[in-house]
Structure formats: C-alpha cells, structure tokens
Amino acid sequence: MERISPRACFEGEFSLPGDKSVTHRAIMLNGGADGEGVITNALMGEDCLSTCRCMRALGAKIDVDGTTLRVVGTPRFRRGTKLNCGNSGTTIRLLTGFVAGKEIDAELYGDESLSARPMKRVAEPLSLLGADVKTTDGHAPVYVSPKTLHGADVALQIASAQVKSAVLLAGLSADGETRVIEPIKSRDHTERMLQAMGADLRVDGNEVRVKKSALKGVDVCVPSDISSAAYFMALGALKGKTLCKNVGINSTRTGILKAFDLLGVNYTLLNRQVSGGEERADILVEKSDMRAINLTRELVPSMIDELPLIALLCAFADGETRITGAKELRVKESDRIRTTAELINNLGGDCEELPDGFIIRGREKLVGGDVDSYLDHRIAMTAAVGMIASQTGGRIYRPECCAISFPDFFEKLGLKLY
Ligand code: S3P
User: What is the pLDDT of residues 237-273, one digit of tens each?
Assistant: First the structure.
C-alpha cells in the first residue's frame, strides 16, 4: 500500500461499521432459532462472513442486502457438516458450544492463525456438560460428536466471552441448569441476546444461569463497534478532534474510556440511548496531553481488543506506563504482546515486553517507521494511527487483514490499500 504520511491535524465525523461481537451473535443465534430475524447495520467483515458461511452450512437461510441480513433459522442443524471458520475465534468457539448441544457430529476448522489458537479452553468446560468435543492437540480442527447434555456448574479460569458463550449455547440444550462463573466479567452480548430471544437465562454479577430453552428469531439493530471507533477516537486524542457516531457503549466494552480517564484524554458522550438492549452514544474526543498509566488485570477484559492501541497512546504519554494481567493478548490473531511491542519500537518508541503486558516509556514524539501487521487486523490499524501521529510516517506490510473487522478502514482515513 502507499506510504502513510504524518498529519498535522486529524478532524472529522465518522460512522463506523457494526459491532463484530453483536453481528456474530445475531447471525448465529437467529440461525439456530425458530422464525426469522432482520439484522441491520451488520458488520460485513470477513469474520462475520465466516459465521454466515457456517450457519448456512448448518441449514440457516441468510439473505444479504448491503449491511442488512435476513436470517431464517433452523433449530435442527444439518448433520456431518465441515464448518470453515476462517480466521474467526468467535465463530469457532461459540459454534463449538452451539453444535455440541444439537446431537450431531461436525468438524470445525480454520486458517493457519486460527489453527494455532487454543481450543481446549472450550472443549474442557463443554465436557463438564457431557459434550464430546475432540481437539487436535488442543487446537482446530475440532470434532464434535452427538451427545445428550446435562446442566453443570462451570467455573472458568479465564475471563473470556467466547468460552462463556460456548458454554451458555450448549446449556440451551442441556437438561437441568447450567451455571457459568467468570473470574472477571467479560462482554455480555450473548446473555442480552439470548434473553431477547426468550431463553430462560439469569445474570447475577459474574454468574450466569441458563436452562434448556428454544430460541425465537429477533430483529437486531447493531450499534457501531467501539473496537473500530477506537482508532478514530485515538486520532482525535493525538491530533485534533473526532466524533464517532452511534457507538455501542455496553459497560463490558468501555474499558477504553476508563483508560482515557486515566490518561487524561478529553472526551464527551453525546446522544446516549438504549436500543435493542444495547446502549449507544456519539463519542467526541479532543486533542489531549496524556500522562502515563498503570493498568491491571481487572480492567483487561473490557478493553482486550483495544490494548495494542492503548499501548500506542501510552507511547505518546508523559512518563512510564505499566500494563499487566494481559497474558490473553499472547493468544489472539497474533501474539499481541510481541507484535505491539515491535510496532511501537519500529515507530521509534520504547516498549518492553512483560510476560503478561508491557512497560512503555512515553515520548512526546515518535519518529515513524515501517511495521508488519503479522496478518493481525488490530495491529495493522494501530500501526496506521501511529504513523499518522508520527513525524515521518511509514509503511504497513500486509495491511489487507483489516478486512477481518473493518473492510473500509483505510478508505475512511483517505488512503488507498493498493
Ligand atoms: C470476543 C471476545 C474476545 C475478543 C474477541 C471477540 C467475542 O475474545 O478478543 O475479539 O465476540 O466474544 P475472548 O473472549 O477470548 O477474550
């Protein structure tokens, strides 16, 4: 792609693509429900297309018109399917749980990056419900065999919405009650949508209980993704003023705003409203002088996908930042502790890896430089922000991976991919 040049000022109003987590769930749950659901402002990124492909293979009917999807569900999944989950951790993990409750056999697989990501974290808790889920040395391909499930108490070791959701989706088909307890609360879109679809599900703090339930299709109006808005919010803080419209501000996702509070970033939430069970707002961010912060594990799940970008902001903040309790970053689309540290250092910053996070010594200015995305969409987009805010800019190698979650990211920045 063309070289990314630094900009003296970055201002504008932005409409961002639909939320990835909400879109996945709206497609998957409507695909396994009775009746139909219309999804508006759906994210048409590659990951959500993987969920569409899998749900079609299982028997759901999905019509696409721009960012509107009409899903006609199939409560009974087709047997013996091979489900290609592409690069998508959310697709493979949630679907493993959903399929495990359907008394069918299935194979779930993905690309090279997905095949390197841990799957035992899903197989083990599902086995407590009586599911038969075999991994390939802890990874994909994953093989599900038919079993009748029973409710169980599942105490998760890690705070992961993907694992929690997999157990809840299996729990929908289990006799008795399934109880999932998380060490720290992770994003709760699955719980909200299941309740809207008529599931017998109760939430009490970090504990969720679900009983055997059939789902009814629902319409979902997807808010814009705070994880995608984050790049434009960061550019506002570094370089001027940005307004991101209609962004989902579910409290399990707004860790970046807590990080902004600590960093001293100036932001305002406008037009707050709740629609379809998810709160949204326009987020105005203005240029701010930032100070170093200390982030620990309790805040990590609510900002997990934003941590590479937050680390970059800390590279521009005054003082030494410490981010810990974020070991999960090592098992994302890339090892994001390694790739984020490399990104910041290539731009001329000073970032040291910790086993579970970073130490970042802030500098008023970063010179700029070239960065490899390692085919990780969040690394590619964080690098673009860093280059725009740097003194000389740089080049991103393998930038096309941003299509996973934000297909027109570079166009929105006024840049051409090729
Ligand atoms: C997601 C949960 C998070 C996040 C991922 C999307 C989801 O993963 O990193 O991008 O939609 O449930 P973990 O639950 O594994 O932390």
Answer: 999 999 999 999 999 999 999 999 999 999 999 999 9
Ligand 1 atom at minimal distance to the Cα of residue 20: 11
Compute, in angstroms, the gap from residue 398 CA to the centroid of ligand 1.
Answer: 23
CB 88 within 8 A of CB 130: no
Find out whether 404 and 51 touch, Cβ atoms under 8 Å: no
Q: What ligand 1 atom has the least distance to the C-alpha of 161?
A: 14
Atom 9 of ligand 1, nearest CA residue: 305
* Contact by Cβ (8 Å): 347, 313: no
Tokens of 294: 């200390």
d(CA 346, CA 331) in angstroms, rounded, equals: 22
pTM to 2 decimals?
A: 0.98
DSSP bridge pairs for 136: 139
- What's the CA gap between 381 and 166, in Å, rounded? 28
Round the average pLDDT of the chain to a whole number and report it.
97
- Ligand 1 shell residues, CB under 6 Å: 21, 24, 90, 160-162, 165, 186-187, 304-305, 328
Instruction: Look at residues 92, 59, 104 and name the one whose alpha carbon lies nearest to residue 165.
Output: 92
**Separation of CA 364 and ligand 1 centre (Å):** 32
Q: What is the DSSP letter of 19?
A: P
Q: Which atom of ligand 1 is nearest to the CA of 332?
A: 9
Identify whether 225 is a catalytic site residue.
no
Amino acid at 409: F
Q: Is residue 230 helix, strand or coil?
A: helix
Mean pLDDT of 156-176: 98
